Amino acid sequence: MPRSVKGAAAGVAVLVILAGCAAPGSVTPATTAPSEPSTGYPTLGPADVASEDLDALVDPEAREVVPTWTEESRRAALDVAMAAMQAWARPDLPHEQWWAGLQGYLSPGAREVVVLTDPANIPVTTVTAVQLPDEGETAYVGWVEADTDDGPWWVLVAWQPDGSWIVDRITRSHEVTR
């Protein structure tokens, strides 16, 4: 037998042996080549999911809640503004202690600015009341007026997706920054 025929016969024998090792029914012959390359995960088209099943695919924790002004949200915004103002109005404290008491109420952007403040230069020592005089056009932010021993100060509070409020700005006049 010529060498090429022997090689071909050996190759066929190996394929027959390997095919015999597969479990019955585990090998499905391909009928057509895939028309698109596989991405490694299934994709769903509009016809693949019934509309009533769509909610089951969405993580309820991931849905964004749109804020509205309610008595509870007003109270929470006022509470954060008052706590932040009381922590801020401490010119008697060393910077490290003052900052430790204030930074948890502030947004990341406000922290970058307020950390540079020397508390000894803050003219406010007493905060007597806070009110939300104007809810504005959105419940995402609100200006809170703080009555202090240095006159009115303004606190810009911002709603967070978890339902909490943080302080984005403390200023003598909110008109300048609107």
Task: Provide the helix percentage.
Answer: 25-40%
CATH topology of the domain at 71-171: Nuclear Transport Factor 2, Chain: A
Low-confidence regions: 12-19, 26-59
Instruction: Return the string of H and E elements.
Output: HHHHHEEEE
How would you portray this structure in words?
The longest helix is centred in the N-terminal third of the chain and has 19 residues, at 3-21. The chain has a four-stranded antiparallel beta sheet with strand order 1-2-3-4. Helix content is 33%, strand content 18%. Helix 3 packs antiparallel against helix 4. The protein has helices at residues 3-21, 51-57, 71-88, 95-102, 108-114, and strands spanning 127-134, 141-148, 151-159, 165-171. The protein has a domain at 71-171: Roll (Nuclear Transport Factor 2, Chain: A). The chain has five helices and four strands, in the order H-H-H-H-H-E-E-E-E. The protein has 178 residues and is of the alpha+beta class.
Keywords:
178 residues; alpha+beta; Nuclear Transport Factor 2, Chain: A; 5 helices; 18% strand; signal; Lipoprotein
